[in-house]
Amino acid sequence: MKNKLVCYFSTAQTEQPIIYRLVKNYDLIINILKADINPQKEGYLVVELEGSKENYEAGTRFLESLGVVLEPLSESIIWNEQICIQCGACASFCPTEALAIDRDTMEVSFHNERCVVCGMCLECCPTRAIILHFEIKEAV
Amino acid sequence: MAVQKSYEEINEKIKKGEAVVVTAEEVIGIVEEKGYEQAAREIDVVTTGTFGPMCSSGAFINFGHSNPRIKMKKVWLNGVEAYSGIAAVDAYIGAAQVAENDPENKVFPGRFVYGGGHVIHDLVAGKEIRLEATAYGTDCYPNRKVDTVITLDDVNDAFLFNPRNAYQNYNCAVNLGDRTLYTYMGILKPRVGNASYSTAGQLSPLLNDPHYRTIGIGTRIFLGGGVGYVAWNGTQHHPNVLRGDNGVPKVTAGTLSVIGDLKGMDPDWLVGLSYIGYGATMAVGIGIPIPILDEEMLHYTAVKDEDIYCPIVDYNEGYPYSKPMDLGFANFKELKSGRITINGKSVVTTPQSSYPRARKIAEILKQWILQGKFEITRPVAPIPSAEADIVFKSIPERTPNGLANGRNK
């Protein structure tokens, strides 16, 4: 199984080689998407964990046993209307018409409720008006 | 009596605030209502607009001198190299140049987040720009290094000088291959997964004056939010191509070289772009007024999206390896509808040029003329048209034996 998680660390936990243990002891494939951890400080890590169901569950239990708080990653797409030049390229890649073109005016609009955060628009926007936002709480 | 108006007569009307000015979209409805002759009698100027990625753009900058003086050999603006082999403190920053430390396509596809187009946008936005220059030092120019921060206000001169803009028609790009392509026409999904196009269609300047009767050298235009001029025909100007009955080219044809003072421009109309896997460039806003000298000009400006066709070109092999392939033509009205049919298959269309922004440029230019701030110009000289005998050339393949660095031994 594969999931994106936010791991919140306390000061003491940042001293430990947690990723190393996850790889070595639980055979998990780890992709670090974003991290903000400083020595002697609390912080967070956004990771994608992939492995067999058994290993995945054992790995996350291990993290929780250390006191790391785990939460499913909440991602959202943000469309910056001020930067957008209304070319409309994104809409042709959007599978759910969350980014849509009004065919009369050819203007682009974004409907967050339809967005499934597939990320196709991130690559095709030449002005980088679309960004992926990770929902990160104040570290615990 | 046939309608005849001179440039001077139209400018008199503009000065008196009496000129009738409409956009290249509005003229279509007026013709349908009143017919060509009546519309030609009433309308004095039709404004056009286009806003899209325009490679072959850049700006000349004169930085002024350091103390001691310097003859710059290499120059970087925010880490993007500008060409300085022109003089001591003149440089040309090209829109497509990528930052010196850019990872390019080493990890494919590269992101190209910052390039020359972004530098020009930031300059026009009044932002601080790091200026680095190196030199070998001479008696008259002893300084060997400059590393400072400048803004557009600090430089003596900065003018946009784009060698090729406002392409008259452009390819509709598809991908016949089996892997995703990352091109200057954007992302092309495999097996004709999408069709990418880039033109303002019925609003586009050169599609409204297909034989360049009124657009020529010296024509005053809207450029990057300020005032500019047509300097010359653009590079790769190739007017003698396949055209429809309406005179509109069915393939890439004419281009314009344009010039204007960067200090009078607006960052909304010069925007740095990053094409994944391809590189950096700049979206340029151009608007050109077309004087309705007679009924013929009105016929041209009344061109509609459904009258405009562009060639469908494969970017897997056809374009990169110049392999001729006949994939037919796409109609611009259908492209704008979001789907076209290619070989019986319905294909999603991907626009690259901003139609809403093109419309806005035509509207701004219309307001400038209505307010008497902008007069039309008779070209100083024409640019070559369809009867010109221009051959489209490629780089010759020759063996440079006997030549050392291009000079005879």
Low-confidence segments of chain A: none
The overall strand count of chain B is: 26
Cα-atom radius of gyration of chain A: 19 Å
Compressed to H and E, one letter per element, the order of chain A equals EHEEHEEHEEHE
**Helical content of chain B (DSSP H or I, runs of 4+):** 10-25%
- Most strands sheet of chain B: 9 strands, antiparallel
Report the β-strand fraction of chain A as a percent range: 25-35%
Number of helices of chain A: 4
- Helix share, percent of chain A: 10-25%
Described by the principal axes of the CA atoms, the overall outline of chain A is: elongated
Oligomer state equals heterodimer
Q: Average pLDDT value of chain A?
A: 90
Low-confidence stretches of chain B: none
Descriptive overview:
The complex is a heterodimer of chains A (140) and B (409). Chain A has 140 residues and is of the alpha+beta class. Chain A has helices spanning 18-26, 53-65, 89-93, 120-124, and strands at 2-9, 29-36, 43-50, 69-72, 75-79, 99-102, 107-110, 130-134. In chain A, helix 1 runs antiparallel to helix 2 (53-65). Chain A starts with a strand and ends in a 6-residue tail after the last strand. The model of chain A has no long low-confidence stretch (mean pLDDT 90). By secondary structure, chain B is an alpha+beta fold. In chain B, 16% of the residues lie in helices and 30% in strands. Chains A and B meet through helix 3 of A and strand 3, strand 18, strand 24 and helix 7 of B.
